[in-house]
């Protein structure tokens, strides 16, 4: 995906050894077409040089609060609001503590306090520092304030210990940046100054369950049956539902995507595992089946790798997998108020989608053309047809994130209409 030209990132680089990974993140951001400006703390400059960051961003690095106020070209308010998103990487224990408590003693913390845009933090620190109740408390406060987090990951630390605290890899941070940018990036000012915040958005307080990605059905210990689904549309829907205030559970088959921000992701491989996890997540208000569930699995999984036999062709017997969407649509107990399916069709889109709406007892089918020429499978864009029992509506080509946002808004309205 290439960023639209107006997408601007303000990178706040904290003082930690993981700052070297931020250089790589900067390179990826520039390759995607983002405009990147960086601010470094004093400590950060012990780990990477200003010159390296300036070369990679192609922009002057800011590090001094007072020099900035003297600089007539850009004040700190302007600098913090000029960006679409602020990314703190590495987010050290010190920066997180300052952010959680509203301290503004240096340029980085001042910008983080003065902004009206979303902040994504990629924590990196020693595991004991991360697990310390003070840091956990600060991370909790920041999450409640709407700061998005990516990582930290478990792994070996620069100090030789093993555990949570490693900064996420640059590509995972990049995926998180794209997800956050796909949602509303303005921080709304609280209307209730008592500090009490109700979850906001079209699905505030609702439970949403989404399936995404392909499933993998084993043939033997090394081979499996799968399909070309990337999971991009399903993951975008889970992220959009979380951004709309829903409590989201995403059950995902194997994909090369980072878990969406907000909500909980459960990883599965087979259709039967997916069904088990979906059932375990009930009751929910909305079920959205986006996964390209394999229709068949091998009747028997060979315990050892199957060997070639030149004298005999290999015959596999396939049996049908459970239909997860139909199982949700037809439930008598705990049926979600809205059951939404996708219909991937390469011909007779409307007729086939209509049949799925009825047969699987859904409230909505989102139909898309997956013929080879459409570019939908694995691509960034989608063109969908929305079918409900009341009628059909064709949406124009748009990004999968935009489809997700609109769908979530529509489901919020439909759910309100059900009166549940
Ligand atoms: N689906 C499911 N479980 C299955 C098969 C499909 O939950 N075993 C869901 C998908 O998540 C999607 C919808 O059913 O929401 C339609 O999937 P699709 O692959 O288009 O259709 P199928 O029902 O598999 O029918 P066919 O492949 O014959 O078109």
Summarize the structure.
The chain is an alpha/beta fold and 420 residues long.
SS class: alpha/beta
> Termini separation (Å)?
38 Å
Q: What radius of gyration results from the CA coordinates?
A: 24 Å
State the shape.
globular
Percent in strands: 15-25%
User: What's the CATH class label of the largest domain?
Assistant: Alpha Beta
Major β-sheet strand ordering: 12-11-8-13-16-17-19-20
| Poorly predicted spans | 189-199
Overall strand count: 21
Total number of domains: 2
**What is the CATH architecture descriptor of the largest domain?**
3-Layer(aba) Sandwich
Walkthrough of the structure:
The chain folds into two domains: 8-181, Flavin prenyltransferase-like (Rossmann fold); 207-418, 3-Layer(aba) Sandwich (Rossmann fold), CATH 3.40.50. The protein has 14 helices and 21 strands. The radius of gyration is 24 Å and the shape is globular. It is of the alpha/beta class and 420 residues long. Helix 5 (93-101) packs across helix 8 (133-144) and helix 10 (232-243) crosses helix 14. Helix 13 (349-359) links the parallel strand 16 (338-345) and strand 17 (364-369). The strands form six sheets. Strands 12-11-8-13-16-17-19-20 form an eight-stranded mixed β-sheet, sandwiched between helices. The model is unreliable at 189-199 (pLDDT under 50). It binds cytidine-5'-triphosphate. Cytidine-5'-triphosphate is lined by residues 211, 271, 289-293, 295, 321, 323-325, 341-344, 356.
